[in-house]
Amino acid sequence: MSESESFRERPINIDSTGRRKWVYAKNPRGKWFRWRFVIALILLAFLIAAPLIRYNGEPFMLLDIIHRKFILFGTIFWAQDTFILAVLMLGFVFFVILFTVTFGRLWCGFACPQTIFLEIIFRKIEYLIEGDYKERYESDKLPLTITRFIKKTIKHILFFVVAVLITNLFLLWFVGPGELKKIITDSLQLHVQGFLIMLVISGIFYWIYAFFREQICTMVCPYGRMQGVLLDKRSIIVAYDYKRGEPRGTKDGGDCVNCLHCISVCPTAIDIRNGTQLECINCTACIDECNSVMERVKKPTGLIRFDSVEGIENGHKTIWNTRNRAYSVVLILLIGFFVFLISTRSEIETSILKTPGSLYQVVENGDIMNIYNIKIINKTHSNFFLNIKLLSHKGKIQMAGKEIVLHGHESFESVILVTIPGDQLNRGSNTVEFGMYEKEKLLEKYSTSFPAP
Fold first, then answer.
1. Environment class of residue 54 by beta-carbon count within 10 Å: exposed (0-12), middle (13-18) or buried (19+)?
2. Cα–chain-centroid distance for residue 19?
3. 3-class DSSP state of 36
4. Most C-beta atoms within 10 A of its C-beta, which of 236, 238, 324, 393?
5. What's the CA gap between 57 and 437, in Å, rounded?
6. What phi and psi, each to the nearest 5 degrees, are found at residue 294?
7. What are the start-end ranges of the E strands in 27-86?
8. Rounded mean pLDDT of the chain?
């Protein structure tokens, strides 16, 4: 059976014995690659700058899992906002589905961190030190020389240095610039465990980009396998116009001259002429290479282009169908619901819980007293000077400290003693309601239990 007939039986970078075939991808050039390069620089700039930019005294982006504090585009979400974050994540999932149904794996080729780091950083280092694909392919077949050993050593040292920088860049998103600076400038003895974890993660990144490479896309990432479910005949993909190109390589046949340049430049080594494949990441390298060949042979460009199966077969250009519209409606509803939740979210989040292990006390005149722990989180950039009142009963509240001062995006914790006359209470458990006020403005209500004899 020929390779063209059996290419779907296994990943293209695995031979018939199950051994890996190393991919020597040609250095891409052309209009689409320039667009990819510009987009990659913008995304890398955002990746670096987003946690460094300060907005109202806080990082613009921060995923502080330890303290359960998440800042997305300057908006802070706390652990109490889990439902809002769940709606946001659900909206993101539907966006990915809608985007894939409409534009295929455009994300993989233009915006995926794996592609950006591998194609824009690590491969460029490799091209700079070891040369383009033919030079590397031919030299790797020869015995190792001192010159090649030095080149490979320099390359792998640079790879590991970049992997360490990537690890610290991601760490910046999770701890913030201040904490990362403290970790770096502190004595190593204070952060031995964290340093070892950083080295392990850096080693994983180094191994991925130096050795595992495209197999992340072809064997690990589930997104490629989702194509079989999400794509349809109107989805925009990197496609070969077989109606124009076939039969290939003949003088009086189609426009495809069978030069195989589209394969040599592909980072996953597929033949795009065999149709849509899970290994294709829509990087457009084959488009640039094919257009370059078509210009040299004086034929129209676009033999490989962004198009749909239906567009190639029937010239149909509309990308909208029933599935697109259905996903769009759901996505719009989720976005609207998310905006509603954000706009109606309370400015503060109060938690008043009975102190563990404490019992009610009967004080003078038969009044009943209980001890509570109070925690208030400020979800805004404003400062609040709060006071707490009983709304459901007549009674009094005593607090450790004189006032509740709540600075922007900070929390307040204290202990309060709540005393209520016994004649206002039922036997057993009662429900009491508190109000959090800034002057005369009610910011939030909170109900909790109040045990009584």
1. exposed
2. 32
3. helix
4. 238
5. 25
6. -60, -35
7. 54-55, 58-59, 62-64, 69-72, 75-78
8. 89
Question: Phi and psi for 56 in degrees, rounded to 5?
Answer: 55, 45
Shortest CA distance to 279 belongs to which of 6, 19, 11, 5? 11
Name residue, tokens 């950006």. 116
Cα 272 → chain centroid: 28
Give tens-digit pLDDT for 283-318. Answer: 999 999 999 999 999 999 999 999 998 999 888 777
Please tell me whether residue 221 adopts helix, strand or coil conformation: coil
Tell me which H or E stretch contains 419.
strand 411-420
* Bridge-based pairing state of the strands 396-399 and 404-406: unpaired
Q: 50-58 long-range contacts, Cβ below 8 Å, gap at least 24?
A: 50/173, 51/172, 51/173, 51/176, 51/177, 52/172, 52/177, 56/381, 56/408, 56/409, 57/381, 57/408, 57/409, 58/409
Q: Can the peptide bond before residue 300 be classed as cis, meaning omega within 30 degrees of 0?
A: no
| Entry pTM | 0.82
Q: What is the pLDDT of residue 250?
A: 77
Burial class, 324, CB count within 10 angstroms (exposed 0-12 / middle 13-18 / buried 19+): middle
Cα end-to-end span (Å), the chain: 86
